[in-house]
Design brief:
Layout: E1 16-18, E2 25-28, E3 32-40, E4 43-50, E5 53-58, E6 62-76, E7 81-85, E8 89-92, E9 97-113
Antiparallel strand pairs: 1-3, 2-5, 3-4, 4-9, 5-9, 6-7, 6-8, 6-9
Length: 114
């Protein structure tokens, strides 16, 4: 099978499990699970899952998100509030900061460009 095209699934891939920096956690004890499929020249793609909780974020990269399941609310420092649920697609640009709250365990696709 070609390595030039593939499906991003959790099957058969060892995930990375992490938590946000404790200094940034606002609520709960969120656990992040990441299945990385692409890591090349500042381009990253994969699946990311988080359990409920909230933490401060500050983006220095560009990210495309497609939500598979769950719910999150991004409350940005400029007052913008974005709710994300299954089926939503979102683009985050460098410079965005605020609080990311996962209210229902969330699974998303991501493509990140640094």
């Amino acid at each position: 099978m070609s390595d030039l095209i593939f499906r991003m699934t959790q099957d058969g891939v060892d995930p990375d499990v992490s938590r946000p920096d404790p200094a940034n956690v606002v609520k709960g004890d969120p656990v992040h699970t990441t299945w990385n499929f692409e890591d090349r020249n500042g381009l990253y793609a994969g699946l990311w899952q988080s359990t409920p909780g909230a933490w401060r974020f500050d983006y220095s990269e560009w990210e495309y998100i497609r939500v598979h399941s769950g719910r999150s609310v991004l409350t940005c420092d400029d007052g913008t509030v974005i709710e994300m649920k299954a089926g939503d697609s979102v683009v985050i640009r460098p410079g965005l900061s605020g609080v990311w709250e996962v209210t229902e365990t969330m699974l998303k696709d991501y493509v990140i460009l640094e």
